[in-house]
Amino acid sequence: MISLIARLLLIVPSLIAGWFVAKDDPAYWVVAFVIALVFIVLTIVFELYVAALLRRGPKP
To answer: So which domain of life are we looking at (predicted)?
Structure first.
């Protein structure tokens, strides 16, 4: 299950890196790694802050 989540998180950065860097370029995986780190950080920030606000619900 964890590997499926990891693959889903890494597909998007790989596609984004493919738009800007040729797949034959040695820097492709470096760019994909940096985009993946940003994507993972944004996912964590969303889970910590936004999801907590949504779970809290409206104030009475």
So the answer is: Bacteria
Angle, vertex CA 38, rays to CA 34 and CA 43, nearest 5: 145
CA 39 – CA 45 distance, rounded (Å): 10
Instruction: Say how many C-beta atoms besides its own lie within 10 A of residue 13's C-beta.
Output: 19
The pLDDT of 36-60, averaged and rounded, is 81
| Number of Cβ atoms within 10 Å of the Cβ of 17 | 22
What is the signed CA dihedral for 14, 9, 12, 48, rounded to 10 degrees? -130
| pTM: predicted TM-score of the whole model, two decimal places | 0.65
Angle CA 27–29–35, to nearest 5: 105
